[in-house]
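To whoever is on call:

I kicked off a structure prediction for a single chain this morning and the downstream step that reads the tokens threw a length-mismatch warning. I double-checked the sequence; it's 322 residues and nothing unusual in it as far as I can see. Pasting both halves so you can look.
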Amino acid sequence: MKKIMVTGALGQIGTELVIKLRGIYGKDNVVATDIRMDKSAAATSGPFETLDVTDGKKMLELAKKYQVDTIMHLAAMLSAVAEAKPLAAWNVNMGGLVNALETAKELGLKLFTPSSIGAFGPSTPKDRTPQVTIERPTTMYGVNKVSGELLCDYYFTKFGVDTRGVRFPGLISYMAPPGGGTTDYAVEIYYDAVEKGRYTSFIDKGTYMDMMYMPDALQAIVQLMEADPARLKYRNAYNITAMSVEPEEIAKEIRHHLPNFKLDYSVDPVRQAIAESWPNSIDDSAAREDWGFKSNYDLEKMTKDMLRKIERKIERKGKLAQ
């Protein structure tokens, strides 16, 4: 990778990925795009263009304008939002991906796009879900992800497009706000712990889901995209994970730092049903074997870092408001 265009650059992953990529490849070599602009570092620290990913013509024009060799296609509607607006989710998630694939095909580009544990469904093995297994999701988001995996495989085998991807677990970050995902509680719980001393979870106790701290996710993207293509057996759907946790375990770890933290529950039936259709834990041995994936953050290390950085972020906001 030498020159990269990122779609959905102001979302949860893109906000931090753009900064990481600019640090590695140079700020002028990473073009951030999103449907709107804001004042974040991702938008202001290097080239930025507004782009609606359903506009394939403009996507192609921007890729040509900046002479990119790689597209990081992150723009998507997440699980809970997609379930509320299924047709819109299909149009954005699949229409945007087709446009990214067509742009990559025409210009001979590498393409990264993430899949998700949302690609799995109730009939998928729940514990240590294998790399190759049943994918019969019951959500529009999941249908989009399975379709995306297959579509990327098709463009690789049919047209030779160098497509790559991972199945992300829930991603936890202190920088970008939650974007309508089922695993968002695992971000919100830390903010409310610092700001309010208590949190009301919309996911029920005992509901295990795979999670990953954002630094591990960003490193996985770069590592996969720099990997020897001859070693990639699964290309567009590598299982990766760092931990399998449920709300009570996160709360217990938070109490090591904030002893008075309280956890309550008001279960959202829609997001709870989505969570229950996903695995309890997944097997990421293929990613470890094929391209050396390794997570660095467990629950203890992540919690310590999250709380410290959220506290600093709130302190900075307070000083700016004075």
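Update from on-call: the warning came from a stale cache, not from the record. Cleared it. Sanity check on the structure: The two ends are 43 Å apart (CA to CA).
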